[in-house]
Amino acid sequence: MATTQSPPATAGADLLQSIRQAEGQAAGRLKLFFGYAAGVGKTYAMLQAAHQARAEGVDVVVGVVAPHTPLATTALLAGLEQLPPGLAAGELALDAALARHPALLLLDDLAHTNAPGSRHLKRYQDVQELLRAGIDVYTTVDVQALESLADQVQAVTGAAVENRIPDPVFDAADELRVVDIEPDALQKRQGAVGQSSAANPEAKLNANLNTNPSANPAQSSTQRLTELRKLMFRRAADHLDHAHAPAGGVAGKTGEHILVCLSGAPTNAKVIRTAARLAEAFHCGFTALYVESPDFSRIDEEERHRLQVNLRLAEQLGARIATMYGDDPAIQIAEYARLGGITKIVLGRSLRRPAPLTRPGLMDQLAALAPGIDIYIIPDQATSPPAREWALPLLRPFSLRDGGLVVGILALCTLVGYLFVLGGLTSADIIMVYILGVLCTAMVTEGRTYSLVASALSVLVFNFCFTQPYFSLRSAPGYLATFGVMFLVALLGSTLTVRIKQQATQSAQKAYRTEVLLETSRKLQKAVDAPAIYTAAAAQLGKLLECPVLFYPAGDAGGLQPPLLYPRQNDAPGDPQRLAACLAEPEQAVARWVLKNNKHAGATTRTLPDAAGLYMAV
After folding, report:
1. What H or E segment, with its residue span, contains residue 344?
2. Nearest-CA neighbor of 267 among 348, 179, 168, 163?
3. What is the rounded CA–CA span in Å between residue 554 and residue 560?
4. What is the rounded CA–CA span in Å between residue 324 and residue 336?
5. Is the distance from CB of 102 to CB of 62 less than 8 angstroms?
6. What pLDDT digit, counting tens, does each position of 128-176 carry?
7. Is the pLDDT reported for residue 208 higher than 80?
8. What residues pair up with 601 in beta bridges, in sequence order?
């Protein structure tokens, strides 16, 4: 099992005591030194401000300053206390910073990705923990690192930015200082100090402005830097709006509300960022909606992973996540928009042309179902249309059970058909028997494949057994129309039966979730003490999530009490291996961090992601 490094127990106790002592003080303040490219002087300005604060009597400590800074900037480190590096050079020793607890800590490159084994995946999460501990932070960031601008930056530079920060982190800064320089002067400075060398990871985009052929060839490097500079000033102006927003509201909040549709498509991230920029421009609410269809359980792992990534991206950009269930996304989206007061919908559009004789696309359906809502279509012109993939249903994994049911039902229909012949009934009655058999096949088998096979085989068996010449696939021309109508009726009937069965399964799942929530409410109302509450909550969570639950009660002194393990009904009670894994020191360290910071951490998160479990503060 992968583990993460954690501070010793004594250090953890000291940190807990210091945080309890600091509970009465305000959170730290964040000051951003904001630029449009590497080399504009963000680190230099930050160190100058640090010296000024130190001269005013502020306790200043340098956490991390990038090693590739020019000599003039490095000289400003003289006279400032520096923390030892963390897991590697250029990494923050977060626990050492919390233990030292200066009034002001300096950190370069807010968008930095921490080394493997660090408590947090990204440096901005380190900064958030420092702020919660009451430590003021000065840090640097480029406009290229803002998540919502990733597509625009890539269009200007021709390269994607790997290290990015969520826009709410930027907007939450208490103070923003724009560090600016003319693009021509920046290029001269880079040439003088070697800022564009390979030793400087932050300057890769600057070098890319001159060399990357995928950037806009009609623009010079100076023009591209100018475009980034414009983005910087626009984003700084947006930050000013947030800074002067009324308490508990959004600056200039209008009656607009934007809805973006989530999916596992590769281009969905661009659609989400565009919707976030629209919400920022209109100063309005922003919701991301995913419509879960009956086919959700059959999507491949790659698409499922992209969906999770897109969902986390929407959360980072400030969207409220909503989920609806149904087999027709257009109806579900239109209904949610009507009930939720949505005024604008943002959709992505594939460059693939629709096939003839197919139903209208999602955009056309929404335009008809919600005519009063503005629909924004975001095409992806950067990629070529994907090749259409034709998948034959018969190539899916074959089930002996379902195959046997198809053969058995057809044999039974044939036997009934011979009984009808002996009874003097007509061919029309026999056809109805085979159609009934196809409907029964759709009800008892999984998927549409067997219904399609049953429809085709029904026509062939009827032709072979009940039309002249008998026991031959040749037949009179007059039967051709009969066979065609029989096949279409059987196929349409089986398709509707499969759809109804899927809707029934989906309704049962929704009813089960609702029943679990109602049952949870009743059990919690009946609980008379803390252990009863723990037991009821853990049992219901186990039902809903289908996994064992480990519960750490918090003691009166602020520490963790011994954990309580609640296995599922089909798990072996008191499984020693499972219990040992849950009680391992690295896992308990994650639980202690969650208790101290009131934030979730562990598996699937960006904080201590190597943990075996997901830990949440209740």
Report:
1. strand 344-349
2. 348
3. 5
4. 8
5. no
6. 999 999 999 999 999 999 998 998 898 888 888 889 999 989 999 999 9
7. no
8. 615
CB atoms closer than 10 angstroms to residue 365: 17
Query: In angstroms, rounded to a whole number, what is the distance separating the alpha carbons of residues 194 and 187?
Result: 10
Alpha-carbon dihedral 223, 226, 231, 234, rounded to 10 degrees:
-130
Cα–Cα distance for residue pair 414/417, rounded to 1 Å: 5
Helices (H) and strands (E) in the chain, counts: 21, 15
Tokens of 28: 């730290």
* CA–CA gap between residue 367 and residue 524 (Å, rounded): 45
Calpha distance 50→465 (Å, rounded):
93
Strands 60-64 and 104-107 come out as: parallel
Q: What is the dihedral of CA 78, 79, 84, 89, to 10 degrees?
A: -20
Q: Where are the beta strands (DSSP E) in 48-199?
A: 60-64, 81-82, 104-107, 136-142, 175-178
Pick from 221, 82, 229: nearest CA to 142: 229
Token pair in block for residue 70: 């020019």
Angle among Cα 414, 415, 416 to the nearest 5 degrees reads 90
SS3 (DSSP) at 555: coil
Report the relative pairing of strands 549-551 and 374-379 from DSSP bridges: unpaired
pLDDT of 556 > 80? The answer is no
Return the structure tokens found at 88. Answer: 């590697």
User: Radius of gyration (Cα) for the chain, nearest Å?
Assistant: 32
Residue 58 neighbours by CB under 8 Å, 6+ apart = 103, 104
Cβ proximity of 190 and 200 under 8 Å: no
DSSP-assigned letters across all residues of 197-234: STT-GGGHHHHHHHH-TTS-TTS-HHHHHHHHHHHHHH
* Backbone dihedral angles phi then psi of residue 164, each to the nearest 5 degrees: -135, 165
Work out the end-to-end distance of the chain between its first and last CA atoms, rounded to an integer number of angstroms. 26
Tell me the residue type at 49: A
The per-residue pLDDT for 21 is: 43
Residue 260's φ and ψ, nearest 5 degrees, are -120, 145
Which residue type occupies 396? Answer: R
Q: Torsion-angle region of residue 317: left (phi > 0), alpha (psi -120 to 50) or beta?
A: alpha
Cα 7 from Cα 14, distance rounded (Å): 10
Beta carbons within 8 Å of 397's beta carbon, 6+ residues apart: none
pLDDT in tens, 274-303: 999 998 888 888 999 998 877 777 778 888
Peptide bond into 469 cis (omega under 30): yes
Length of the chain: 618
